[in-house]
Amino acid sequence: MTQHGNEVPRLKLTGMTKRFPGCLANDSVDLEIAPGEIHALLGENGAGKSTLMKMVYGLLKADEGTLEWDGKPRDIVSPAMARELGIGMVFQHFSLFESLTVAENIALGLNSKEPLETLSKRIAEVSGHYGLPLDPARHVHSLSVGERQRIEIVRCLLQSPRLLIMDEPTSVLTPQEAETLFGTLRQLSAEGCSILYISHKLDEVRRLCARATVLRAGRCVGACIPAEETARSMAQMMISSELQAPERVQDKEIGDVRFQVDRLSLTTDDPFGVELSDINFSLHAGEILGVAGVAGNGQAELLSVLSGESTEARHGAIMIEGHKVGQLNARQRRDLGLAFVPEERLGRGAIPGMGLADNALLSGYARKSLVSWGIVSFSKARTYAENIIKDFNVVAGGTKAEAGSLSGGNLQKFIVGREILQKPRILIVAQPTWGVDAGAAAAIHQALINLAHEEKTAILVISQDLDELFAISDRLAVISHGRLSPAVATHEATVDEIGLRMGGLFEGEEQAHAAH
Amino acid sequence: MLPIKLEPRGESARTVAYFTPLLAVILTMIGGFVLFALMGQDPLEALYVFFISPLTSYYGFSELLLKATPLGLIAVGLSIGFRANVWNIGAEGQLTLGAIFGGGMALAFYEMDGFWILPVMLIAGVLGGMVWAAIPAFLKTRFNTNEILTSLMLTYVATLLLSFLVHGPWRDPDGFNFPESRLFWDSALLPALLEGTRLHVGSLLVPLVVAVAWVFLNRSFVGFQIKVMGLTPAAAGYAGFNQKRLTWLALMIGGGLAGLAGVLEVAGPIGQLNPTISPGYGFTAIIVAFLGRLHPVGIFFAALLMALSYLGGEAMQIQMGLPLAVTGVFQGMILFFLLASDVLIRYRLRFTMNSAKAGQESV
Amino acid sequence: MLDTTLAILLTVVAAATPLVFAALGELITEKSGVLNLGVEGMMLMGAIAAFAVGISTGSSMLAILGGAAAGMAMAALFALMVLGLLSNQVATGLALTIFGVGLSALVGKGFVGTPLPALDKLDIPGLTDLPFVGPLLFGQDFLVYLSFVMLVVVAWFLGKSRAGLILRAVGESHDAAHAIGYSVMKVRLLAILFGGAMSGLGGAYLSLAYTPMWVENMTAGRGWIALALVVFGTWRPLRAFAGAYLFGGVTILQLHAQGFGFNVPAQFWSMLPYLATIVVLVMISRDQTLVRLNAPACLGKVFVKTK
């Protein structure tokens, strides 16, 4: 890496401030990137990284502060203007259109009005040059998440960007795919393109980035050269109080099979969906089984057949303590002791426009006996909600507060708490800490471990966060292209091995483990 | 660019929700003032004729209650559907089928006496409405067919069916070829509630239905499920509520109550079957449901107001020679103003001094 | 016999044309992600406005423009509500229809029973004289030709133009379109206004050409059928156009069927278009894959800018 000290910085932010009703998202943030530099913007969820980037990209207007581009002050009022200056952005949640083709999607993101034919040719060229294979004529809904990210990257590259902003790019990639991406980024950097790399993954930042700026609660709390830091020292900058890894129970006993999935296959009539094929696993009392995998590999489909939101599975493909439940609906499975925390909190796990007492009633009606003779006991529902709020330290304005008014972390604590307090026999949890701040994430992890230990609940955790799965699960399996790998004991697994499986490299292993 | 900015409220404002219908009524009056002025009428006199004059007599008052009866019954049923995100807009057709089924009973038991005839008619009317609502319910739950279009198409079919019956098989043999059925026998007519008026005992069903609907929506678990399904269908699926069954239920309640309204009309003020048994009650009830905030008690009052719009239109026709269509214009206006002022429930208006800056943000 | 067939086919064209306009307009509106259930109301306002302008100016061109403008004005009201005040699209569309039915009847009271000469047929020298196909394809009035042109324009716009691509993108995911920097509001406003103008033209055709007079509620549910045609056409212009002609055929069938001596009461024949609408809706919507691949994913959803 060259030193960039004396050059005019490509981008310089001074005193950037952005207020939203009720919160100060960015408080006088400074940042500087040299030409060709890979610069990390580090911070926990909610630290204000995305807000800062949206201001650079012209999606948000700063309340205060100045932005200098190549040494000249600029007022970037729209993404189109940002693109004209040579700024490209790859979003964490892709701005893609499922029913359109790759070429059409890219055309939409370009300022030039190039015909689709010539554009398609250029897409093929650029994607070849940077090792990002992509077929311009494919429809987006038929692509994997990794391929979708390539569309976003190629779209930026077609404009010969001088600054590329990447928002948590590896959160949707397997470790091996991430490695390929780093190669592309280093190539770009060598060609003189600056890269602003937003992440909370410290290892990546240490390997990739020349300098780092750390944000906490909307403020710059430090700048460093990642290569000279340890992951631990950077973590301490990011997180205010020192966090403890969840306490694991040593030598725990695993009980009988509570939940079993046997040769579950599912075709789908949703053209945007993923088919499940031949999924097998069993879940024992008191254990936590983790399912890793990149989003869009069948997790959504698997969750909906396991929870009973979909009843299209073969009746015997899913068993709760010996009962066949494949065709039972979610309510009937709840009656048998299954509880479920969905990935989508607002709009599935909770009703945004209803109060917390009503949201407690939503899933607690049966196991907490909140309904008799068809009439709801709202006083019982309130008490139940109060207990959840108290036991799980939910910050909320009482049981009447609307679910939509809670922060992501507090809502997740409420939903997890609501399911845990029902003392389920089996608990299925999707993305337990996605977008949740570090404190809430630690509390949720501990609650899950305690539930497995104290109540002997069998817990299935489906997550994209490998660190999380390594921290809490007893066994680990991987889902890829609608197939599930055999589970291995977590203490015997390595990140590399799991990463390879996330790429689908476990075909043939199934027979070997069939005896398990 | 307007120097006004919409700012989301943290929580929906309940007090504002009860206040917006009043705001809508006031805005409608202002709109009416402008409309009448444009038509070259004295706006104040016109507004008096429309809104006040119908209420100045005992008879007018009874007519108000009479017209509010079908509106209230249908709107309560529709509101339960709307809460569940089931858009049954074919209540007019369900009302017609209720009239056909109930009226058919009256004709079948012509010249017979018996206390049981009226109850049989009412039950038949309810069933008629349910049968008609069952078609969109079946198509929606079985084939995912949009209930808005199917229920509406069936309204046209129902009207034609009624037309066929009164022109053909059910035409009064002694009726000089008029497209009307026989006048119902006394045993098939609802007793009057107030002497000398057309108000009948069937109107007593309205407060009863309102009370039951209130308990159903606010206390019963099925009512809770309906609200959840309407607000966030995915949460209903998550909780394990049977959405097909709830869709059926919502349409059956809506259809049944519309059918009841239909049979009450033919067994009450009309007293026979003819091709035009309803001046669009089924459609106006949609407005009543919204104006009443999809709340049974609110609907009770909204039904009275919309009934007034019918009487007002009639009064304008008689006293000022204006077309009856004034009623429709007023009804449309009030719904518009209501939907427009509803923005205040979710957002608060902030007037910004610097209009240029506000423009950038809001467009 | 050939003459009878020709006469029937000519009436099919006449019955289909208002549906073509309304369905193509609504198709564009829906492709942008907005469901406007007010087609019936916009058509009626277009019909009365065109008729009133035609009577008072004697100019058929001004009458047509008046119809389009009235439809567009109604659409502007709808746009103000759903885009500006974020109101529920279903309820607002219903309000637009109720309002349009009432207002057109009120405005049109003075015109009931007034005759108006039907729109001129624009003959194309040489071609119109061809036997059979001549009068059918080249002996039509301006609006029929315009409906053909609009089919081509709409199909080209959606399939080939960049603006059409942006419109489809907004309808598919308004959040993504916004993130890239397109103005969701502007695209939707234009799409709604176009839909309104087309509905207005559909109404104008009814009162200027189909039955050159004004009758209260003369659309008789055609606005709703146009909405169904958009679904029937799975949001594709050519299929919606074909659907309109199919329905034109069904409408005419019921008029002529009695003449052929079928002994079925008139009312049952009149039910046909409505029953046919239900049947085709069921046929299309039972295939969820087809709907999912073609329907705009954001149809009917309120767009709220997030932080």
Briefly summarize what is shown.
The complex is a heterotrimer of chains A (516), B (363) and C (307). By secondary structure, chain A is an alpha/beta fold.
**Counting H and I runs of at least 4 residues, what is the number of helices of chain A?**
17
- Percentage of β-strand residues of chain A: 15-25%
Detail the poorly predicted runs of chain C: none
Q: Average pLDDT value of chain C?
A: 89
The total beta strand count of chain C reads 0
User: What's the end-to-end separation of chain A, in Å?
Assistant: 50 Å
Multimerization status: heterotrimer
CATH architectural name of chain C: Orthogonal Bundle
Indicate the overall shape of chain A: globular
Instruction: Please identify the structural class of chain C as seen in this structure.
Output: mainly alpha
Q: How would you classify the helix and strand content of chain A by structural class?
A: alpha/beta
Whole-number tally of structural domains of chain C: 1
The total count of helices of chain C amounts to 13
- What is the CATH C level class of chain C, in words? Mainly Alpha
Radius of gyration of chain C, whole Å:
19 Å
How much helix is in the residues of chain A?
A: 25-40%
Point out poorly predicted stretches of chain A: 510-516
SSE ordering of chain C: HHHHHHHHHHHHH
How would you characterize the largest beta sheet of chain A? 7 strands, mixed
Gross geometry of chain C? globular
Write the layout of secondary structure elements.
The complex is a heterotrimer of chains A (516), B (363) and C (307).
Chain A: E1 11-20, E2 23-33, E3 38-42, H1 49-56, E4 64-69, E5 72-74, H2 79-85, E6 87-90, H3 102-108, H4 116-129, H5 145-157, E7 163-167, H6 175-190, E8 194-199, H7 202-208, E9 211-216, E10 219-224, H8 231-238, E11 257-266, E12 276-284, E13 288-292, H9 299-307, E14 318-320, E15 323-324, H10 330-335, E16 338-341, H11 356-364, E17 371-372, E18 375-376, H12 378-391, H13 408-420, E19 426-430, H14 438-454, E20 458-462, H15 466-472, E21 475-480, E22 483-484, E23 488-489, H16 495-502, H17 509-513
Parallel strand pairs in A: 3-8, 3-9, 6-7, 7-8, 13-20, 13-21, 16-19, 19-20
Antiparallel strand pairs in A: 1-2, 1-4, 4-5, 9-10, 11-12, 11-14, 14-15, 17-18, 21-22, 21-23
Helix pairs in contact in A: 3-5, 11-12, 13-14
Chain B: E1 4-8, H1 14-38, H2 43-52, H3 58-83, H4 91-108, H5 117-143, H6 147-167, H7 205-219, H8 221-231, H9 233-239, H10 243-270, H11 281-291, H12 296-320, H13 326-341, H14 343-346, E2 347-351, H15 355-362
Antiparallel strand pairs in B: 1-2
Chain C: H1 2-31, H2 39-57, H3 60-84, H4 89-108, H5 133-138, H6 142-160, H7 162-172, H8 174-180, H9 184-210, H10 222-232, H11 237-257, H12 266-285, H13 288-294
Helix pairs in contact in C: 1-6, 1-9, 1-10, 1-11, 2-3, 2-4, 2-9, 2-10, 3-4, 3-9, 6-7, 7-8, 10-11, 10-12, 11-12
